[in-house]
Amino acid sequence: xxxxxxxxxxxxxxxxxxxxxxxxSPDVFVRELLQNGIDAISARIHSDKNxxxxxxxxxxxxxxxxxxxxxxxGTGLTxxxxxxxxxxxxxxxxxxxxxxxxxxxxIGRFGIGLLSCFMVTDYICVRTCSxxxxxKTLEWRGMADGTYTITETDEKISVGTEIIILNNKKSGxxxxxxxxxxxxxxANLVYYYGLFLKYPVxxxxxEERTRLNLKFDFDTTRNKDxxxxxxxxxxxxxxxxxxxxxxxxxxxxGIAYVLPYPVSANVKNMHRIYLKNMLLTESxxxxxxxxxxxxxxxxxxxxxxxxxxxxxFYDDDxxxxxxxxxGECIADYLERLDLENKxxxxxxxxIHNLAVKSVIASTDGMDNIxxxxxxxxxxxxxxxxxxxxxxGGQAFYTTDVNQFKQLAPxxxxxxxxxxxxGYVYETAIVMKLAEMSxxxxxxxxxxxxxxxxxxxxxxxxDPAADMLLSVAARVLKKYDCKVQLKEFxxxxxxxxxxxxxxxxxxxxxxxxxxxxxxxxxDMLSFFEEDIKSSSDGKNGAKACLYLNTNNLVIRKLIxxxxxxxxxxxxxxxxxxxxxxxxxxxxxxxxxxxxENLYRLMQF
Amino acid sequence: xxxxxxxxxxxxxxxMGEQKCKGIKRAIDAALETGDINNALKLxxxxxxxxxxxxxxxxxxxxxxxxLALFEKHPEYWEENSEDLMWSFKNVVxxxxxFCQIPLDRIENIYRQYSEYCKRFNYNMRSYYRHLWGDxxxxxxENFAGVKDVCECHKRMMQCPIDELSExxxxxxxxxxxxxxxxxxxxxxxxxxxxxxxxxxxxxxxVPFFTYNNFAIYYFxxxxxxxAKFFNDKACREMYTYFGNTGSLMFxxxxxxxxxxxxxxxxxxxxxxxxxxFVNNYNCPFESFYMFLGAYHVFKQLKNEGTSSIRFxxxxxxxxxxNKSGCYxxxxxxxxxxxxxxxxxxxxxxxxxxxxxxxxxxxxxxNKGEV
Lengths: 603, 371
Description:
The complex is a heterodimer of chains A (603) and B (371). Chain A is built from 21 helices and 22 strands. By secondary structure, chain A is an alpha+beta fold. In chain A, strand 3 (123-129) and strand 4 form a beta hairpin. In chain B, 70% of the residues lie in helices and 3% in strands. In chain B, helix 1 (3-11) packs across helix 2 and helix 15 (285-304) runs antiparallel to helix 16. Chain B is mainly α. Chain B has a domain at 1-96. Classes of the chains: A alpha+beta (603), B mainly alpha (371).
């Protein structure tokens, strides 16, 4: 025969689950009580036509080390409601009410909030008077072992609910629990969680009454100074700027702040996120678009679904929509700056260079606004894309940082523009700039451009110069370095060493092999072989030493007929050009420098 | 100068990855020039970590021998620097198989030398077998470095207790889940073991991204696109949040993009745009292969959905692919297929199997039929 059985719930176990697994700290019992109070007040405003909204408030009294009392002037509960909602775990009065009203004013919905008090006490007393039965005050006493009693009490209270918790927790953290039974600490927790709650929360000390939360409305606050101060107080930064976040679909409202220093994309940005004006989390980075890591915010939402711990949101369509809308708000802000406050936009782009570049590289639509402000390294110093675009004539870019460093001085001498697009996102940025630039024609630098920039030497096909070239080619062969005669400015540079990425790697491998033990040296030889085997192709290793025939030393060398001396000088010039290009020397090069200097002394 | 001074002077403010690596290299040269050996050793370790975690790992493999030689030359700094050295060595061992230039027997030599260093500095072989089983699995290797197969390798790993060269708990947990998913093929057990990660009890910079991604790959391979999408969405979000702007983890990102291509091709393209720039200059063939694979699947799917051309930052000028109004999707699909294919062929030649070619040419079948 089939029989129905009911699950039994071990309340002690439940409390352990709440305190150790669901909630991050016992602190949250203050949030849960505030939440219950605010929801009860919202329900009363909806249901009790005689209720004066000016009476909507929460009061807290603390007897140091002994007792905490939370009082709200909400709906209160009838006996049936006590049985249904206070004594059944997982059943929330707000859930039922929500089915009837779709106001969405309620913060809680899980029916487990009151249980969180058992993290700091073994005894909860709830005195309540429902607006439906204003002459009747009921007292519910719940114990941590799962038992409870209900009695009607002669001690009448106003319509609403009082929750009393006593400092009598037997097991647990001792002194840590004592800290909660302190007016200052409770006030701090109210300030922390409920600063923006729309009904006043007071702490009472005898006749004295202190309001703990702000009169602040996310939807209407527009005063920039107030917003900046809030940012400084709650996010702990002197922000560069702030702007209002407002969802067109009513999903959120709040304030976004621009960080005054660069941050890495990997740093978790902390935002203060409120759900119906109650602090939900300080680490809700999922609400912002991923690229907005230069922004922090204080934000309130009414329509996103919290998880049961109420410390994060469900990852659903509403969250996705909110994220998109926040992205649009940031884009609108940047667009406004472009029209109204260009200096600020320059500053933001300067500080958050990488973040802004990543936005441009990965999203369409922001190019027109942000691209002109991006700063790039050029042969004529740092220039914005707008300045590059206005420069006029022909400009080149290189995706090789080493090549840029070697060639920039030459371009600079000729007042020509070479752009360094060697770092991440910069190739994409420069390509977009090339498309948008009207006055300047921007093209990628090729080997023939370098040859073109370095003028042909007047010594071309001069037999003396040919001899120098042949000696140089012989001497530099062991370094896999080609040699050419050219004329270029500045005159005082005798030789210019250029190298592509593969050749740069090859140098690094050689340097490592010099130090390596047998096993690693053997392994490195395969990397070296790999580079050599690809050297015939377009992307192979290429290194070239350009000798400047405008330079007196080179001219003197051409005049010389002493091949041996010539070889010494060439090798020294080669090493010198490496040093001036900031290339670390490998052992053979250092040795060659010393040996050649010694030989010259002996001539 | 102390380490902090080097940091401030040479690389503190630089962007992560490629740029920071260049800065640290300049700091190493500066320390060596002044004979500041202790800081040079620390900077080599810093370089190794940065290069491995946020870039392609190539230079850290190349430069490790300099680090090792400097360390060996200066026993006075062993006590202070041996753990750093071993972590860097571990990183190199974890990466070396991903370079198809290196023959398998040379890789076995590196593994052997690593095991000798583990013994010398009193570490057990857990980290050794951890990398070995990974290499054997992802490269389809058997009878490698004296171990018969992946199962035996993992068994040997589990026999070694966790030590100072082990990953943090989140990493160890993720590694176990990966083994259960891909080798034991036991989804229920994988869920059970992944619980501390999914519930948020265990996490680190890469976890839960890796774990979500592995579940997505598992379901994707099993043809369950719905579940693959569920985990892929989570993986994409984690990836975007923490690694969106770093040129690292291209293997994981590539697979993530590949799956996303089948669930939301536009989103996959968006992620790809952000990542592909890194790979154009990448020197790690294994990681590049997976990003090219991801790119190939994105363009294949976009083509199947009827897109013919898009604006795309294609490296260099190629009339077949790029013109001023955009890039041809079919040409991009073919380009990235060929890029992946050329790497796959090198790996398969080196590994003496068809592992990578099979991955590249695999036809995925979902509930709705073959895609």
